[in-house]
Amino acid sequence: MAKGKDVRVRVILECTSCIQNGVNKESPGISRYITQKNRHNRPSRLDLRKFCRYCHKHTIHGEIKK
Fold first, then answer.
1. Contacts 24+ apart (CB under 8 A), 54-59
2. Among 3.40.50.720, 2.20.28.120, 2.130.10.120, 3.40.109.10, what is the CATH number of 7-17+29-62?
3. What is this structure's pTM?
């Protein structure tokens, strides 16, 4: 087999709610998760509902560039 691009790639998911509200003194940071996705099955950007420990609720986490 040829050694080209891997099918499964590591992606970083970032809380969209924290980004929209901006990082202020109340929020100590932005929630991020690291996961994998299959490039052939899902070529578009990944959006998942994950728990944000800074917002204290489940929010949409979107894929960001590395």
1. 54/15, 54/18, 54/27, 54/28, 54/29, 54/30, 55/15, 55/17, 55/18, 55/27, 55/31, 59/15, 59/16, 59/17, 59/18, 59/31
2. 2.20.28.120
3. 0.77
Instruction: Please check whether residue 15 is in contact with residue 31, taking contact to mean a CB–CB distance below 8 angstroms.
Output: yes
Number of other CB atoms surrounding residue 35 within 10 Å: 13
pLDDT digit string, tens, across residues 12-49: 999 988 876 665 555 567 889 999 999 999 999 999 99
The three state secondary structure string of 31-66 is CEEEEEEECCCCCCCCEEEEEECCCCEEEEEEEECC
